[in-house]
């Protein structure tokens, strides 16, 4: 397995290792718990503003995970592709992914 990332086309089955995988998984587990909490709040007929506040917190937490993954991708995949001379392809891919996560 490689560190994130060896540049591969989308849909590749090549395995990559996120450099901070355990931290990302911990964050995602907390987010999962927050989402379950929101379900419980709705089920318990909690005040709408409290539910919306928790939803905003989950969105912010997911944005932080996205930014970390984007940073990993840029420091790994993008940097490697640029060194290999694949500027056009990797920049196009990066622009597309930034549009998706913004």
TrEMBL record:
<dbReference type="InterPro" id="IPR038390">
    <property type="entry name" value="Metal_Tscrpt_repr_sf"/>
</dbReference>
<dbReference type="GO" id="GO:0003677">
    <property type="term" value="F:DNA binding"/>
</dbReference>
<dbReference type="GO" id="GO:0045892">
    <property type="term" value="P:negative regulation of DNA-templated transcription"/>
</dbReference>
<dbReference type="InterPro" id="IPR003735">
    <property type="entry name" value="Metal_Tscrpt_repr"/>
</dbReference>
<dbReference type="GO" id="GO:0046872">
    <property type="term" value="F:metal ion binding"/>
</dbReference>
<protein>
    <recommendedName>
        <fullName>Transcriptional regulator</fullName>
    </recommendedName>
</protein>
<dbReference type="Pfam" id="PF02583">
    <property type="entry name" value="Trns_repr_metal"/>
</dbReference>
<comment type="similarity">
    <text>Belongs to the FrmR/RcnR family.</text>
</comment>
């Amino acid at each position: 397995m490689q560190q994130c990332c060896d540049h591969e086309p989308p849909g590749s089955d090549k395995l990559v290792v996120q450099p901070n995988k355990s931290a990302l998984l911990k964050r995602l587990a907390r987010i999962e718990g927050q989402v379950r909490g929101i379900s419980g709040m709705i089920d318990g007929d909690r005040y709408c503003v409290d539910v919306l506040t928790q939803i905003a917190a989950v969105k912010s937490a997911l944005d932080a995970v996205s930014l970390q993954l984007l940073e990993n991708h840029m420091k790994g995949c993008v940097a490697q592709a640029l060194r290999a001379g694949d500027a056009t392809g990797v920049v196009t891919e990066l622009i597309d992914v930034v549009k998706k996560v913004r």
